[in-house]
Amino acid sequence: MKAATLPLAVDGGTPVRRDRLPLHKPWFDHREAAAVSDVLSRGHVAGDGSRGRELERLMRELTGARAALAVNSCTAALEIAFAAIGLEKNDEVIVPSFTFVSTANAVLRAGGRPVFADITADTWNLDPADVERRITTRTRAIVPVHYAGMACDLHALDAIARRHGLVIVEDAAHAANASYQGRPLGTWGTCGALSFHETKDLVVGEGGMLLAGDDRGFVQEAEILREKGTDRTAFLRGERAKYTWVGVGSSYVLSDILAAIAIVQLEKLKEITRRKTAQAERLLAALGPYQGVVQLPVVPQGSTPNWHVFAMLVDPRRRDWILEALRAEGIGAAFHYVPLHSAPFAKRAGLAPAHDLPVTDRVAQSLVRLPISPAFSDDDNADVIAACRKVFDRL
After folding, report:
1. DSSP state of 18
2. What are the domain boundaries of the chain?
């Protein structure tokens, strides 16, 4: 029987699978358990132990970053970044509205003001032309967010930043093991923030990494902010006889238990990316005939994605029905961000822009994410495809 004639589960038909396939599933096995057990046996479970320092060394080696600071979330990395660049009250930072709330919250916590710019219709990343239109005398920084592990147009954004004397802070929460023109994402700007959250590719539960380049002053300030306002990081390197309170900071350090998990995940990262890329390529090939119904993701020129997210656009008038139909088939499909410029807090805080963000609004109303994970089997991936074919054939 052709898919077009199969009754949909949402209409009472038999679903593709009985158990719901989640949107994402971390790939853990005995190796993470053994790493945690080893840390527990050593007795040092707080941050900046042997596992944390090894994780930072491995991240420097992988990315080529001058500094890598393990932190307890990507949000923490962003908060440190904006404080370390010296963001002052009412300094403006251009961010996409189509992003997670941490991108804007970190700016606000440092005293700055997020200015929302639109995204491009093909990659759903910051539109450089719109970024340039938002620049004023108060603009201090630009935040490229590499949505789904697809690189922003970093050459264009870097040229804008240089022209106007601005700082680039990369929100690379989605971008572990993704690159642009062979250079890892998170290493193009003054700094970059990675996420090790449960939903990401490299998973520790809650965690992240701040990457930095050659600005030694920035790195020193970030180290102090991360370690509760002390110079303890320099002390641990043997550069101080003792450490003390030298500035304002907070407790952003990553536990050695989680660092141990991150090291194992880092060892798996190439395989994680390989598995997700294979799943994405199968989805692209299978859904290609439905281009009249869906807009499939586009890999920007020069970008090597990690396929953190597999997202597509559909008719916004049918999006909610499509989600309902896919979920009824046992597929954990989902939408994504509510644009920040339209959120209740943005309106209360006077952050809603006077200008329209038409692409952001359209993408937010049209986007559907499909399950993709290194822990999924070929059969899981085939079920996603079968469910999409049933639903899209109906359309």
Report:
1. S
2. 1-395
- In angstroms and rounded to an integer, the radius of gyration of the C-alpha atoms of the chain is 22
Q: Tokens for 268, please give them.
A: 């798996």
Q: Is the domain 1-395 a CATH 3.40.640.10 member?
A: yes
What values do phi and psi take at 63, rounded to 5? -100, -20
Angle ∠(317,322,324) on CA atoms, nearest 5: 115
User: What is the pLDDT averaged over residues 232-246?
Assistant: 94
Write out pLDDT tens, residues 301-336.
Answer: 999 999 999 999 999 999 999 999 999 999 999 999
Which residues on neighbouring strands pair with residue 328, listed in sequence order? none
Residues in the chain: 395
For 351-388, give one letter per residue: b (16+ CB within 10 A) or e.
Answer: bbbeeebebbbebbbbbbbbbbbbebeeebbebbbbbb
User: In angstroms, rounded to a whole number, what is the distance separating the alpha carbons of residues 182 and 13?
Assistant: 47
Residue 144 CA, chain-centre distance (Å), reads: 11
Q: Is 40 helix (H, G, I), strand (E, B) or coil?
A: helix
Tens digit of each residue's pLDDT (9 = 90 or more) over 9-36? 999 999 999 999 999 999 999 999 999 9
The residues that are catalytic are 200
CA distances from 57 to 1, 128, 137, 202 (A): 56, 34, 39, 16
Residue pointed to by tokens 């090894």: 54
User: Which band of pLDDT confidence, cut at 50, 70 and 90, is reported for residue 245?
Assistant: very high
pTM above 0.90, yes or no: yes
Cβ atoms < 10 Å from Cβ of 29: 10
Distance separating alpha carbons of residues 87 and 92, to the nearest angstrom: 9
